[in-house]
């Protein structure tokens, strides 16, 4: 009887012990969900101190390190645990994730397949870990279609009921460029757990990537996230970044909320420095970044060097800006270096002669990496503007022209920037290409016809072919219809002067030449050149033979 009671007591203790760990692991996973990785790391570390062989705790401890942007530490930890438990599917999946970050895609795939094989393809947790690694938008080397396959496999396992898996599946579809399927997966997650706001947040992210026009829609989703779970820190971090360049006070408000609901880790320190930069307090941003770097010791958050670099650049301290950028690229994981980093570094390098080829490679890399049209355009425009400031219209035109390759609905400004700089560079055929498109896209705008007239008047300098005539005629027709438009009068004046010379010198038509002189004088009565033209044309017959003024031969 006593033995039975003892066994029963032992079972109660064992059940309580396992329940305690389960609750702690769930608590740690909840911190990962909220992206409070330092808190998660601390919880899993305590579990592992008591139970070093706890596979789940070890896997999520590594996940917390990856969240803290320390993949090298995560890999070392995973490998150390694998040495004691080489057949752990979760730990193998964890190593595979780090190898994706390291761009070792073949090694990573071997790890994933081994993990799935060891768990016989029937572990939701293992399939989810593999899917997560490949669907994570921050891990560029992940295979979205592979993630979709494995996560869908997880949903077919008996007893499946995971909002997390469906959300990761949505991320995989989104990474694969299938927004419709992504939203459907996110909605499936919410059907399982309406409070799983990460799925709601991800729907908002889909609409955000579609551009500023979708702001009312994605803000609705973000506000719904905040209403349902005010502690969900990622939404505040995202909104801080969204308003960072357009509405600094609003960005600062979201930063405060982000910091209130997150761990005070190196990222938080970085954000405090970055808001100083956004406020135009560049020296303060540098001082804050240096303070954060000193506080972190030997392994400071790499982005701190990035904020120093752009702050120094704004202060025109190009030497320190370059040093900070170099330090950033040296310390930052390649998988975390963004397209904007390469583009900003490129414009800085342009200030150091001899780096033009490297600059071009960096901007092309930034454009190829980024998935957002507006960002691609900003990188190209940034370099075009930089070359304009260096008085190099040929290079400026080349980069402005690339905007039309990435922008679906390019504007009159885009066409002008390319066409006008080609014109200044004396590459008239290229200039005419863009201004011809300009007239087709904006048929009632005087500028396109005017610039084509200017270019063809240079190409056909004698006027014998009359190449500029139809374009200057269109310029005059549009200009005379409304002389109140900006810059119309100087463009009309230039067109009138063309026809004065064209009719007098080429067509030998004195009366038509004088008509255009009178038109020009009507809008520029004080133009002394026009008065001289009128006097000369009135006194001379263009059809009369010209008298030779040179020496007479015998």
Report the structural category.
Answer: mainly alpha
Question: What does the radius of gyration come to?
Answer: 34 Å
State mean pLDDT (0 to 100 scale): 91
* CATH topology descriptor of the domain at 338-434: Serine Threonine Protein Phosphatase 5, Tetratricopeptide repeat
Global outline: elongated
Uncertain spans? 1-21, 548-554
Main sheet properties:
none
The top-level CATH class of the domain at 338-434 is Mainly Alpha
C-alpha termini separation: 148 Å
What percent of residues adopt helix (DSSP H or I)? over 70%
| Beta-strand fraction estimate | under 5%
Number of strands: 0
Secondary-structure topology with pairs:
Elements: H1 2-33, H2 37-50, H3 55-67, H4 71-84, H5 89-101, H6 105-118, H7 124-135, H8 144-155, H9 163-175, H10 179-192, H11 197-208, H12 215-228, H13 233-243, H14 248-260, H15 266-278, H16 282-296, H17 303-314, H18 318-331, H19 339-349, H20 356-369, H21 373-389, H22 393-406, H23 412-424, H24 428-441, H25 446-459, H26 469-481, H27 488-506, H28 510-523, H29 528-539
């Amino acid at each position: 009887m006593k033995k039975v009671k003892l066994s029963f007591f032992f079972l109660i203790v064992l059940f309580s012990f396992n329940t305690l760990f389960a609750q702690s692991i769930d608590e740690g996973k909840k911190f990962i969900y909220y992206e409070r990785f330092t808190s998660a790391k601390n919880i899993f570390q305590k579990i592992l101190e008591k139970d070093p062989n706890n596979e789940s705790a070890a896997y999520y401890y590594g996940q917390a390190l990856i969240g803290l942007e320390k993949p090298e530490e995560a890999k070392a930890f995973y490998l150390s645990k694998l040495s004691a438990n080489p057949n752990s599917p979760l730990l193998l999946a964890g190593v595979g994730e780090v190898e994706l970050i390291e761009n070792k895609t073949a090694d990573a795939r071997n790890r994933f397949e081994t993990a799935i094989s060891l768990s016989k393809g029937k572990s939701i947790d293992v399939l989810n870990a593999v899917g997560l690694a490949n669907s994570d938008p921050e891990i560029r080397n992940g295979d979205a279609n592979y993630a979709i396959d494995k996560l869908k496999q997880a949903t077919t396992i008996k007893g499946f009921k995971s909002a997390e898996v469906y959300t990761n599946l949505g991320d995989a579809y989104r990474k694969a460029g299938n927004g419709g399927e992504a939203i459907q997966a996110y909605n499936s997650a919410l059907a399982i757990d309406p409070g799983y706001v990460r799925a709601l947040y991800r729907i908002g992210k889909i609409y955000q990537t579609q551009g500023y026009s979708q702001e009312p829609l994605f803000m609705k989703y973000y506000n719904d996230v905040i209403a349902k779970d005010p502690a969900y820190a990622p939404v505040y971090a995202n909104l801080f970044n969204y308003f960072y360049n357009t509405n600094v006070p609003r960005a600062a408000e979201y930063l405060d909320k982000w910091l209130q609901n997150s761990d005070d880790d190196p990222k938080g320190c970085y954000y405090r420095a970055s808001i100083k930069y956004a406020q135009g307090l560049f020296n303060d941003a540098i001082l804050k970044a240096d303070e954060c770097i000193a506080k972190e010791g030997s392994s400071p958050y790499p982005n701190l060097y990035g904020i120093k670099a752009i702050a120094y650049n704004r202060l025109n301290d190009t030497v320190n800006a370059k040093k900070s950028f170099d330090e950033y690229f040296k310390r930052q994981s390649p998988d975390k270096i963004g397209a904007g980093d390469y583009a900003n570094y490129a414009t800085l390098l342009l200030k150091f002669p001899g780096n033009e080829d490297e600059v071009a490679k960096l901007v092309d890399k930034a454009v190829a990496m980024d998935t957002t049209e507006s960002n691609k355009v900003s990188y190209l425009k940034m370099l075009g503007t930089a070359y304009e400031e260096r008085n190099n219209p040929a290079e400026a035109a080349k980069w402005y022209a690339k905007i039309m390759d990435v922008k679906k609905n390019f504007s009159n400004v885009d066409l002008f920037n390319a066409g006008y700089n080609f014109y200044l560079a004396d590459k008239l055929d290229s200039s005419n290409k863009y201004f011809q498109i300009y007239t087709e896209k904006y048929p009632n705008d005087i500028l396109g016809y005017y610039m084509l007239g200017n270019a063809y008047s240079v190409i056909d300098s004698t006027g014998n072919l009359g190449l500029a005539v139809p374009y200057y005629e269109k310029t005059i027709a549009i200009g005379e219809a409304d002389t109140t438009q900006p810059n119309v009068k100087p463009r009309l004046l230039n067109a009138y002067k063309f026809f004065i010379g064209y009719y007098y010198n080429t067509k030998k038509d004195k009366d038509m030449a004088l008509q255009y002189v009178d038109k020009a004088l009507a809008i520029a009565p004080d133009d002394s050149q026009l008065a001289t033209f009128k006097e000369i044309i009135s006194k001379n017959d263009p059809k009369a033979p010209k008298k030779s003024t040179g020496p007479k031969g015998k």
